[in-house]
Amino acid sequence: MSDPEIHLPAYLAGKRQLAADESFEFTCHPGVPCFNQCCADVNIILTPLDVLQLARRTGLHTRLFLDTYTGNPITKDLQLPVVLLKMRDDEGKKCPFVGEEGCTVYQDRPWACRMYPLGMAIPPARAGVEPEPIFFVFEDDHCQGRLQPDAVAWTAERWRADQRLVERDEIEAGFRELVSHPWFIGGRQLDPKRMHMLYTACYDLDSFREFVFESTFLERFELDDDLVADIKTNDVALLRFAFRWLRFALFKEPTMKVREGAAERSVQ
Ligand code: SF4
Ligand code: SF4
């Protein structure tokens, strides 16, 4: 049974919730009869690390990658930026990265593609409580992976380790802290300027690096020299730094030290 306090997104409604020690059967390889069929006409929400890795994979500036390969759903009650992988604009609506042999960006495939057939929900923020994710299993008719004779029994934990989700989730822990931040308790919403800050720092990392190194940013904040050198060239370090800076810029947490004399109004 689902926790009655958790408002599940529509795509998880009615799915089987997995207890920590509960298993599901699954395999996926070129021999399954449905191979590649799931890589079309599907909503894939990209995380910041997904965008970064796919932009590097395609050799595009993150801004150009976002413009070329993603879209943002337009809904008036959107509380946070959502970045969706755009399917091809033809009848088959295939993923732009699917080929005859399967996923052409397999090593850099998105979080959602690694998770399938699992789904995850994070309970809403409660002051002083670290939200624990809960897992669901999709048993879609089109997916025959669970019915194959070589299907393997997985727990959510083993599946996430196998798909290298644990290390990715560690990198993006700061992102989950942002989107489930207690500031949002009671339905508070970010204004358009702060939504744009969140979008740029999390998803358009090359533009965020330009902002850090080509504006007065480094004159306004005290940062260790080692950190500055690291975020100049290390994408993951910059992503972690972006999450840290956003806690200051969006929620006024003391995660950044303003240099003496830098006016408060000019630091965000
Ligand atoms: S990114 Fe790869 S695994 Fe994900 S939908 Fe596209 S082709 Fe399939
Ligand atoms: S539908 Fe399921 S088993 Fe078939 S290719 Fe996709 S994930 Fe694999």
Tally of strands: 11
Strand content: 5-15%
Could you tell me the radius of gyration in angstroms? Answer: 20 Å
Shape assignment: globular
List the total number of helices.
11
Main sheet strand line-up: 1-8-7
Q: Helix and strand string, N-terminal first? A: EEHHEEEEHEEEHHHHHHEHHE
Low confidence ranges: none
Query: Which structural category do the helix and sheet elements fall into?
Result: alpha+beta
Which cofactors or ions or other ligands sit in this model?
iron/sulfur cluster
Descriptive keywords:
11 strands; three-stranded antiparallel sheet; two-stranded antiparallel sheet; 36% helix; 268 residues; alpha+beta; binds iron/sulfur cluster
Topology, pairings included?
Elements (H helix, E strand, L loop, with lengths): L15 E3 L4 E4 L21 H11 L3 H8 E2 L12 E2 L12 E2 L2 E2 L7 H5 L2 E4 L12 E4 L14 E4 H7 L2 H7 L1 H7 L12 H12 L1 H10 L2 H4 E2 L2 H9 L1 H17 L5 E2 L10
Antiparallel strand pairs: 1-8, 2-9, 3-4, 5-6, 7-8, 10-11
